[in-house]
Each structure stands twice: as structure tokens, then as C-alpha cells.
Design goal:
Layout: H1 2-21, H2 33-61, H3 65-89, H4 91-98, E1 104-106, E2 113-115, H5 120-127, H6 136-155, H7 164-182, H8 194-213, H9 220-238, H10 247-268, H11 308-318, H12 331-334, H13 382-391, H14 400-408, H15 411-421, H16 428-440
Antiparallel strand pairs: 1-2
Length: 446
């Protein structure tokens, strides 16, 4: 009975949209499922546009705090309903609408350029926790920018082409986004409106999925998916305190369950994942699996899909003092496995054993999932980090070239490198690739 009521509710929404879209005289056939999802998406983009226009008008004409704050919250809820597909199809616009309220400095440009932050989070700082009337003109200007972006986007939607694969990828990633950025308060840092926004995001997911569910109303997979969505929303309605909210329970028992059910429903519908590599492994039903994130996505092309022999060699080299110039310090000297690959010190000791380095030895667990390495982001890959640390005069004061020569004099190492790389010689790149492969294996997700 409950399932039937859900389907009737979904169907009534679809009939409203499809009566507009599917009976157009220029359309010879009914819309595909992706086409129906697009119809819903376009409608909800226009709802967000209307909400932003209302807030834009209020910021120009009203000083009533309650009214303005309510309008802001309403616009944010409308944004959350479209967030999955907006992030999937136009991530750059999503950053402009909902990026952190922090200006970005482009230090690599010939002339230093500052990309000024825009979007909801910028406007939020003017309105919460109190409406700063003295800066209302600035708030109004920022809201006008946000609204302008939406107007341009809404006019360009006609050419948007959706696919079932991208839709399901967008919905799965929205669950992950909710786990990490949503309920944590990352994108509502001042208003702390994260829990109602999570509810809206789940509602948006349910609305998009209704297109697929109504085609198989008696499917057990469809029932379990809609049931998981409803239970998650019920949990949010019952637990409304941002500070007291049990995020661990919500993630484990609700969001991850939705991810699993989405995975099963997608497979039942015979909708494959996109074939290209991504940071998130969508072939895993759970986002809490140790295989959720693809280490190879963050690795250079020349060091992907490494053999187990390469990782095993890297572990040996990680503890090998011959990598240092004085043959007395190894990587493990400062990244001790039983201390979570740190040395437990506020700042590490220099190679001479007396002076302190400027920085500490951070954990290497999950280091591979960083887009850049080192505090100042001076290298992109772990392979470069290995060479940099080995060459640093205060850390290991050697070179990967010298290390390769020294290792070549040991018959056991020649055999191990041969098994790992299928070559007789030991090169500096082999050393870098092996150590990096081992560090890349230090996955803390489970």
C-alpha cells in the first residue's frame, strides 16, 4: 500500500511535467527516461531562478531580517534539489554558485590574478547569523551576480543532453557529497542550514529517480531504494539539531544504504557506469569500502596498475637506509608505521640528529588521494615527492640516482627489481616508482 501511494505521488508529478513536454506537436515519440529527467531538471532550475530573483529583490528593497533570511534558505533548498545534475554537467558554474567564500589567488599566472569568490556562501556571510544592514548594498551586488549566472544558465538548458549513465553517476556522487560537504556544514558554514538542505537534496534525488521507479513500480529494488530514501528523510525530520546530529549513524545506516540501493537499482535497470577512470570507484556499492577511491586516478600514467612485486619492493626500500646520503636514514625513520607513519614529533629532526626541520612528518596514510604533495604543493605526484625528500640536505641528503647505483651492487636487489619491473638494470625512476607504489597502497578506508 505504501509503495502504491509513493508511485501515485511520483506519477502525478511526472504527469504535470510530461503533459507539457511529451505532447509537443514537434515530438513524434515520448521522451526517453533521460529526457523526462531533463524536463524535471529544467523545471527545478527555473524554480531556483525564481527563488533567487525573489531574494535579489528583497536585498534591494527590504531590511527585514526574518524575511530576507527565509528567502535565502528557500533559495538554498531549491539549489540543493538541482545540485546533483548541476555538479555533473556544469561543475564550474556550481563552484561559482556554491564555492567557498574565499578568493582564489592564481600564483602561476604571469601577473598574479585573484579570482573573487561568488555565490551563496558569500551572500550567506552578509545575512547570518544577523543581517548586516550596513553592508546591504554589497550583499545585493553579490546576489545580483549569483542571479545573473543562473539567468544565463537557464537560457542555455535547451541544448543540454542527459544520459542514464551520467544521471546515476550524479546521484551516487551527490550521496558522497552529502556525506562529506553537506551534513558537515562545509557549504553552509554560517547559517548552519545543512540538515534541511540534506533533506532537500534527498528529495531532489527521489524526484529524479521517480522517472525510473514508475517504469517498474513492483520492482523489489525500486521499493528498497525509495524506502531507504524515505527513512533517511524521516531521520532528518526527527533529528534537527546541527550540533547534536549523529552523523556517523546517518552516514552508515542511511546515506550508505541509499548508495547501495542505488547501485542495485542501477544494475537491475542494466545501466552501466561510464567507462572512463574517476577518483571514485562507482563499481563499489558502498562508499565506506576500502576500494571506494581509485589510487590509480591520482597516479601518473607510467605508474598505474602496478604489480604486487612492485609494492613489496617499495616497502623494503621504504625501510632501506641506503636511500640516504650517509646510509643511516630511511623513509621509515620519520614515517614510522606504528605511529601512523609519523614520528610523533611537532617538527622532525634533521639528518644531523640535532637541528629541527621547519615542518613535521605527516602521516602517509591516504597521501595518494591528495591532488598535490607537500605543504606548499610543489610537486604533483608521490614519485616526485620521493625524489625531493631523498635529495633534501636536511632530510636524507642523497639522490635517487645515487641510491640506484648503491642498490645495483646488491644481488638480492637486482633480483627484486627484475621481478618488479622486468628489467636487469636498476634506475632512479625504478626507485621512485617502487616507493611511491608502496605509499599509494597505504589506504586507510574501510
Amino acid at each position: 500500500m505504501l509503495m502504491s501511494l509513493r508511485i501515485i505521488g511520483y506519477a502525478s508529478l511526472l504527469l504535470t511535467i510530461l503533459s507539457i513536454c511529451c505532447t509537443h506537436p514537434q515530438l513524434e515519440q515520448p521522451l526517453s527516461t533521460a529526457g523526462q529527467v531533463k524536463a524535471i531538471y529544467v523545471q527545478e532550475v527555473h524554480q531556483l531562478l525564481a527563488a533567487s530573483a525573489h531574494l535579489d529583490s528583497l536585498l534591494k528593497n527590504s531590511t527585514d531580517e526574518v524575511t530576507v533570511q527565509q528567502a535565502f534558505r528557500a533559495a538554498r533548498l531549491a539549489y540543493k534539489r538541482i545540485e546533483p545534475l548541476l555538479e555533473q554537467y556544469n561543475p564550474e558554474l556550481s563552484k561559482k554558485l556554491n564555492g567557498p567564500a574565499i578568493d582564489k589567488h592564481d600564483l602561476e599566472a604571469a601577473e598574479r590574478k585573484i579570482w573573487t569568490a561568488t555565490g551563496f556562501q558569500v551572500v550567506e556571510e552578509f545575512l547570518f547569523p544577523k543581517f548586516n544592514v550596513t553592508r546591504q548594498k554589497e550583499a545585493s551586488r553579490q546576489m545580483a551576480v549569483l542571479h545573473g549566472y543562473l539567468k544565463v544558465y537557464s537560457n542555455d538548458l535547451q541544448g543540454l543532453s542527459l544520459t542514464d549513465r551520467n544521471i546515476f553517476e550524479a546521484l551516487r556522487l551527490e550521496i558522497l557529497r552529502m556525506m562529506s560537504l553537506g551534513i558537515s556544514g562545509f557549504d553552509s558554514p554560517v547559517a548552519l542550514h545543512s540538515l534541511p538542505e540534506a533533506h532537500a537534496a534527498l528529495g531532489g534525488i527521489g524526484t529524479l529517480l521517480s522517472v525510473y521507479v514508475q517504469q517498474q513500480p513492483h520492482s523489489e529494488a525500486a521499493y528498497q531504494l525509495t524506502d531507504a530514501l524515505e527513512k533517511a528523510q524521516a531521520y532528518l525530520r526527527k533529528n534537527t539539531s546541527f550540533d547534536a546530529f549523529d552523523r556517523l549513524t546517518f552516514i552508515k545506516e542511511h546515506l550508505d544504504e541509499i548508495s547501495r540501493r542505488l547501485y542495485v537499482f542501477q544494475r537491475q535497470r542494466s545501466i552501466a557506469n561510464n567507462p572512463w577512470p574517476t577518483a571514485v570507484n562507482l563499481d563499489e556499492p558502498s562508499f565506506l569500502s576500502e576500494k571506494t577511491f581509485n589510487a590509480d586516478f591520482f597516479a601518473p600514467v607510467f605508474n598505474r596498475n602496478v604489480k604486487s612485486e612492485t609494492v613489496a619492493l617499495g616497502k623494503i626500500l621504504f625501510h632501506e637506509p641506503m636511500l640516504s646520503g650517509n646510509n643511516r636514514r630511511s623513509c621509515a625513520s620519520c614515517h614510522t608505521p606504528d605511529k601512523a607513519f609519523t614520528d610523533g614529533l611537532a617538527t622532525s629532526k634533521a639528518l644531523n640528529g640535532q637541528d629541527d626541520l621547519r615542518r613535521n612528518a605527516p602521516t602517509l596514510i591516504n597521501a595518494t588521494f591528495q591532488r598535490v604533495q607537500f605543504y606548499d604543493a610543489r610537486t604533483n605526484f608521490l614519485e616526485g615527492q620521493v625524489a625531493d625528500v631523498v635529495a633534501n640536505p636536511d632530510e636524507m641528503h642523497g639522490s635517487v640516482e645515487q641510491a640506484a647505483v648503491k642498490l645495483s651492487s646488491v644481488s638480492e636487489y637486482r633480483q627484486l627489481f627484475g621481478q618488479a619491473f622486468g628489467e636487469d638494470s636498476i634506475t632512479a625512476q625504478h626507485v621512485q616508482k617502487a616507493v611511491a607504489a608502496y605509499v599509494r597502497s597505504l589506504n586507510g578506508f574501510n
